[in-house]
C-alpha cells in the first residue's frame, strides 16, 4: 500500500518535476549563451556556471511549488495560471538579484569566502534573460499540453464526428465571444464557428477570434449558403426574449437547428462552460429583464446561520436549498415527507460540495412531536416554509387534505417557530390566495392570516412574513411539462379557455426574490413579487408547439376543454384591505393590513380542525366561506 502511494505521488508530481527541471536547465544554458553571444564564456564565469545549476534551479522549483504550479492539472492552463507561473519565476529571479547585489556589488566582508564561491550570481543580463526564457518555455509547455487535450475527441475514438458542424452565433458580445473561443479551442466538440450575427452596426465587417460579423440576423438567409451554416446558436441577453423569438422563427423557416447559450450568470458561477449549448426552451422566450439581487444583504442574512427548509424536495424548496447553500450557512436542515425527493436534492447538493452543511430529515410538518424535536435539536435561525399541497384540481376534490397540510400545518409550524425563538419565518404563498375560487387558494389564504396573527402573539420574537407569487415555469404540475407530454404524444394540447391569463416566473428568479424579500422582512408583511405582464396560456401552447418543430392546429391540435373546478380566468396579487408599501427592491412590493388576533385565529383553527374528518366536501367548503368571505367555492354534488 505504501509503495502504491509513493507511485501515485511520483506519477502526479515526478513527471512534472522532471519536465520543469529540464526546461529550467535549458533556459539557464540558453541565457548564458545569449549573454556571451554564443561565444567562449569568460573564465570568471566558467566555473561559476556549474554552481548556478546547483542552486538557481532549486530556488525556481521551490517558488513554482509555493505558487501552486505542482497542484494543478498540467493540461488546464489559462490566464490566472500564467500570472501565478510568472509570479513564481519573478520571485526566484528576485532572490538571484539579491544574491548578485550581496556578492558582486556590495561585497559584504562578513560573508565567508566559500559561500561566495558557491552562490555567486550570473551577470544581470543573464538573470533577466533567464527569467524571460524560462517563463516562455514553461508557459509554452503548459499551452502545448492544453492544446493536445482540447484537440482530442470528448469520447472514444469512434465517436469523433466525421465532419464539423458549421455554426453561426447570434450575438457578438461577451457570451458569444466566449462560446466561439471555447469551440475553437475544443476541436473535439465537432463544432466550428464560421459567422456572427449582431444588431450592433458598429461590429459589422469586423472579426472576433478571426470570425466575421456579417450583419444582423436578418441576413441569415443569405449567409446560410455563403458560409454553409448548419446550426444557429443564440448568445443574446436573457432580457432579449422578443428578439430570441424572431431569431428562432427565422432559423426554423430556413430549416436550421437552433440552440441557446447558457446565461452569463451560469458561466460566471462555473456551473456550465461556454460550449455547453442547449435547445431553446419556452422559458427563454417568456423571460424578462434579469433580476438584480442585493447579494450582500442576502449573504449577511444566511452566512454562518442554521437554516431549515420544509418541502426541500419540491421545485421551490430544492431551489431554495441550492441558493442558500451557495451563501455558506453553518447548517442547512432539509425537511420533506418524500424520501425520494429528499434524497435527490441531498445528492445534488453533495455533488456540488455542500455535503458537510446538510441535515436531511424525512418528516411531515403535521407531526408536532417531530417538529418540536427538530426545533430544539438544530435551533434554526431562519425557516423557509415551502411544504404544501398545491395542485388546484386535485385538492379541489380533497379539501380536507389541503387544509390539514397547508393551513393547520403552517399554523402549527409558525407557533413552534415562535416558541423556539426562530429569527425569521418565511412562508411561501401564492397569488391564488387572493379572492380564492379554489380550496388550495383558500387554504393558503388562511395560512397567510395565521402567519400574520402569530406576529402579534404575546412574547413573540420571530419575524414572520409571507411571499406571494404566481406560476413557476418547470415546477411540478406546471402547464409546460403537461404540454410537452401532450406534444410528444402527438396531441392534442389541451387548454382550458382561450382567454386564460397567468403570471409566470422561472424557479431561480422566484427563489432569488424570496431570499431578497426575507432579507427585508420586518415582521407581519406579505411580499408580492413583480411577475411582469400576465401571459395567455393559449400563446404558451402555440409557442411550445412551434419550438417542438410542429405547426399549431396543423400538426398538433389545440383543444379547449373548459375551466376546471377552482380555476379562474386570471389571477390577482392584492387582497382587499391590504395597503401597498414600497421596498428597496423595484421587483418586490410589500402589503400590510390589520392582522387577525392570535386568539381569533386559535378559535377558528379549532373549529376548522373539528371539521377535517371524512365527510361531505361541500360542507367543508361552505364552512370556509365563514372564515374567508371572499372565497367563491365550487360545490360538488357527491360526498367524499
Characteristic terms for this protein:
22 strands; 640 residues; Rossmann fold; alpha/beta; 3 domains; 9-stranded mixed sheet; 15% strand; 7-stranded mixed sheet; globular
Protein architecture, described:
The chain is of the alpha/beta class and 640 residues long. The chain has three domains: 2-151, no CATH class; 157-280, Rossmann fold (3-Layer(aba) Sandwich), CATH 3.40.50; 295-471 and 504-530 and 572-627, NAD(P)-binding Rossmann-like Domain (Rossmann fold, 3-Layer(aba) Sandwich). Helix content is 48%, strand content 15%. It contains 23 helices and 22 strands. The strands form five sheets. It has a nine-stranded mixed β-sheet with strand order 10-9-8-11-12-13-18-22-21, with helices on both faces. Strands 3-4-2-1-5-6-7 form a seven-stranded mixed β-sheet, sandwiched between helices. Strand 9 (331-336), helix 14 (339-351) and strand 10 (358-362) form a beta-alpha-beta unit. Helix 3 (48-66) packs antiparallel against helix 4, helix 4 packs antiparallel against helix 6 (124-151) and helix 12 packs across helix 20. It is globular, with a radius of gyration of 33 Å.
The global form is: globular
Based on secondary structure, the structural category is alpha/beta
The spatial strand order of the largest sheet comes to 10-9-8-11-12-13-18-22-21
Query: Average pLDDT across residues?
Result: 79
Euclidean distance between termini CA atoms: 67 Å
Give Rg in angstroms. 33 Å
| CATH level-1 class of the largest domain | Alpha Beta
Individual helix count = 23
CATH topology of the largest domain: Rossmann fold
Largest sheet: 9 strands, mixed
